[in-house]
Every structure is written in C-alpha cells, then in structure tokens.
Amino acid sequence: MSLPAPNLDDRRFQQLVDEAKRLVQQRCPEWTDHNVSDPGVTLIESFAYIADLLLYRFNRVPDRHYVKFLDLIGVQLFPPVPARAAVTFWLSAPQPSAVRVPHGAQVATVRTESEEAVVFTVDEDLDIGPCERGPVLSSVASGQFRAHAMALDAGIAFTCFDDVPKANDALYVGLSDPTPRCAVLLRFDCSIEGVGVDPRNPPLVWEAWTSAGWVACELDHDDTGGLNRAGDVVVHVPVGHVASVLEGQRAGWLRCRVIEADDGRPRYSRSPLVRRIEAHTVGGTTSAVHAEPAGGDVFGVSDGVPAQRFTLATAPVVPSLDDLVVEVGDGNGWRTWRRVDHHAQAAAADEVFTLEASSGTIAFGPAVRQPDGSVVGYGAVPPKGAMLRVGRYFSGGGARGNVTAGSLSVLKNAIPFVGRVENCRAAAGGVDGERVEEAKVRGPVELRTRSRAVTAEDYERLARQAAPELARVRCLPAVDDPGLVRVLVVPAVAGERGRLAFEQLVPAPDTVERVGRLLDERRCIGARVVVEPPLYQGLTVVARLRARPRFDADLLREEALDALYGWFHPVSSGPDGEGWPFGRPVQVGEVYACLGHAAEAGHRDARTFPQ
C-alpha cells in the first residue's frame, strides 16, 4: 500500500502569528499594541507567511522521502490479524432433527454507549445433530465390562465403578449417533453413595471416542457433584467423535473415567449408584473469526489506462477467509480476474490484479517504458467504461477482537431453535496492523537480504511475515547441532486480567506449518529449521502483604496478583513492554518493585515482606 507520510510540523500561519504574539508579551512587555494596524504585527505576519511556506516544504523531507522509497521497493504494511473464538450455540430445547448453523452467521458483544459491538463471523457450517442414550457399560481397572441397559430400563440402580473405585474405572455411555462438536446433556438420577470425594472437584474426567482414540471432553458443568446426586452433566464433544463397537455394541461412546489425581483431591471410598441416564444434544461449538462480510457491489469504473487503483469501501481485508474476486463488466457479461501477489511475472494479456489488504486498495497492471522506447504492459487493463465489482469478502481484525470469555452473547442472525450463544473461552490471535515505524525498520532488512534467510534476524523477520499473528519470534542456533536452526514462536494472547494457561501459549498447528514452509523455501542450503514454541518456565512468588487499617486486604491481594501477572506476562510485560526477555533471570528486587508499584497505583498503602 502507499505508506502514509508523516507530518513533521503541523503549525500553520495563524498558529505562528499567535505564538509570536505570546513571545512578544513575555519578552517585550512595553509593546502593548497587538492590533493588525501596528507595523510590528505586520512584520510578524510577513515572517509567519514565509515560515508557513518553509514548513510546507519541510514536511516533504526527509522522512517523506524515506517512506516513499520504501513504497518504491514494495514494502507494504502487514494488515491486522483477526482474532478467533470457539462459539457455542445453545438450543432452546433438544430437537428431533439436525439444526444447522450456517457459514456466515454473526455473533457480537453487547453494544454500549462508549464502545461499538465487536462482531465475529462463523467460518464453517455447524450441524447440531440429535442423539439419544444407547447402551451403557461400566468397566473396572482389570478390563472387565458390565452391561447396564436392562437395569436402566427397569429403573434398578447399579454401581457405575468398582465397589471401591480405583483409577481407570469407567462408566461408558453410548449415544445413538456421533455428535462431533456438539454439547451433550447427560441427565443422571444418582444416589449419594460415592462418598469420600469433594463434589466441587471430583477425580473424574469425561472422554469421547474419536478417530484418534479417547480424547478428553471439555466439561461445561456438572450438577451431580461427581455422580453423587440427581442432576445434569454437559460435555463438549471433540471434533473427531465417531461411532465404534464396544463389547459388541455400536454407538458414539462417551465415558466417565476415574483418575489418580496428583493435586491432593480426595478419592472415592464407595462407588456412586446410578438409576437413570438420559442423553440429549443441547448445543454445538464452532469457530468464529473477528470479521464482517462486505462487498458484492460495484466499486469503480475503468478509464482504460494502466496502473489504475481503486479503494474498497470497507478495509482492512481479511484474505484468509474467502479469496477476494474482482469481476469486470465489458458489455459482454462479467469476466473474473484473479489475484496475484505482484505484477512482475504477468504478461500484457493476463487478467490479474493485486490487493493491498491493509488499505483495501485494488491495483491493475502498469505499463513500463523500456530503454528502446517501447512500452510493455504487466497485466491487462480493464476496457474504458467497464464496470468493476468485487465479490463477498471479509473485513476486520486487530487486538480489539481478543474479547474475554462470555463476551459474545448477541446473536445477530436469527437461527431456528437456537436460544442463546456464548464463547466459553476468550478469543485469541487478534493483532493490530503494522505501524509505519515498524515498516521503516523492516524495509532496509528486506532490501539487504532479498527475502533470504541467512542471519537470525532474517529468520525472525520472515517468520513474522509468514504469520503476522505471532507476538514474538526468536531464532536460536542449536547448541548440539550446528546445522539446526530453532525458531521459537509465541502467539498473541491476552488472557483475562493477565492470567494465562500454558496451552494458550502454544501456537496453532497451521501457524507453525505456515512459518516452517516459508522458512524452508528461504533457508540456506544445508540448514535445517525447526519451528516450535519456547520452553516456558513457571514462576512462583510467595509474599506476605500487610494492609494498613481501613484498607481492603482482599483488594490489595488482587491488585498485587494483577501486577505480578502483568509484569511477568510472556507477551506484553518486561522492561520494554514487549514480553519478558528470552532467557533473562528474575531478580527478587523486581518482585519488590512490582508489588510496591501495585500498592501505589491502587492507592493502597501496603508493606510487603518476603515469606
């Protein structure tokens, strides 16, 4: 895109005159007549007029020349990267037939007086299929299976685990049909017999049989207290859920397995008793992206000359969702032109265009005069008077899309039988577009290396080019293998109040694949590249905080935790605010300073003592 040029001095004529008059009042107090009739004011206005002309020319050098040079060598700003979120659509009631959430459905945050709604668009169809409870089995650690379908039909209670439950004892619930990406409600009628466990944190895990084996399910809620009372269990079934045969019975299997908890959770002393089980599909989860559909209309009329440029009404463009298509109407119908990265390899008759995603600018091929005087076209030119229209595309992106869990609660498109929507986890991956200052640093590197990976800085720059959604990239040589290059990548994550789980810091597989593929094309011969997340080191801070009288000790504790999580955040912390430096040890003085700053910022007078 055409990089925006900086304004080095934005003062104008009247501002210069006013500034001069203020200086006159300070330095020449005897000069009291500041009317336009005064000869001195006439001189001030004359000098202000000349200074205004000089500033006008000054604003066109030297940074403007630098930016225009970057534009000349093809440096473009990286567009914003949209955040992604797993969105769950909850049915108003279980349905006898499948409910489809179509591609393109929109969900949003609540619009307030001060903030516009953040809109997400579903990027793949979701079918919420019905299911019923099928066969039910239980197994003990020794591998013995017991069938309980007849007992359930007769309303007879049975022990779902061994008499004294042990690790890997399991209750298997078969569904009439597989329910990938669906939320399944299991309604239990249980007796309070599974004594010994904490009902708020029982030593159980729910799993589903998939094409890759048993995979853990995300538990939405459990009203049974670990199968100890009547209630509902809602689990989110993973993507690859398939039907399989277990003990001669075919079903889509879910199981509740006893685990050997290593966090001190109490274990069962007796097995819970189950009298009835029902199963229904109550929702489904799919991926949504922070983008809104746009396009589908005419954006310009060709004047028949080369190098035409048109700007779309909505920008920036998210090219990864739907490939943007331009159609040219020349009176004989509409012809589809294809998008290319540049016009360098295009012939004069090739119907191609380029797209600058940040600004939404569409450019057609230029014509270049050769040394012998001839003119060569790089790409076809739409005929004069031809209508230009663009198909549907998506616009959006940026860090604004990293909304917290539960924020996406507004369903913008009515979907039959869908009662509500929510995102159970925070959205992640949204990154703001590149700034001009960052492009000015990147430009000389691109000119020097010509997109080859030689130095560590080259690998880091190319990795960012391949995946702008990455927050940090670090290239390190392997200590034990001189020919191996390790590229450590950290995704852009925010977290609620700075709190992060380790799995949030693992980049998406497609991001790692994309970076590895580009680096493999640009690496030196003989070099081997490994793209992976860094090794994260956990940190434990034990401190005693003392609040003075009349101050809230709990609030002080929360402020201290927020400060610690913020200061040691792997993406937005550290001395420079760009994440904690790789390999840098933590000093105890930094913890003191962090806690002291938290007390001062929160207007709480507190003293900290190391434990």
Tell me what the structure shows:
Helix 1 packs across helix 2 (39-58) and helix 6 (456-466) packs across helix 7 (509-522). The protein is an alpha+beta fold and 611 residues long. It has 5 domains: 13-69; 83-290 and 398-429, no CATH class; 294-396, no CATH class; 436-532, GMP Synthetase, Chain A, domain 3 (2-Layer Sandwich), CATH 3.30.300; 543-610, no CATH class. The strands form 8 sheets. Strands 1, 3, 4, 8, 10, 13, 14, 17, 29 and 30 form a 10-stranded antiparallel sheet that branches. Strands 6, 7, 9, 11, 12, 15 and 16 form a 7-stranded antiparallel sheet that branches. The chain has a 7-stranded mixed sheet with strand order 19-27-21-22-23-24-20, with no helix packed on it. It has 9 helices and 35 strands.
Tell me briefly what this model is.
The protein has 611 residues and is of the alpha+beta class. Helix content is 19%, strand content 30%.
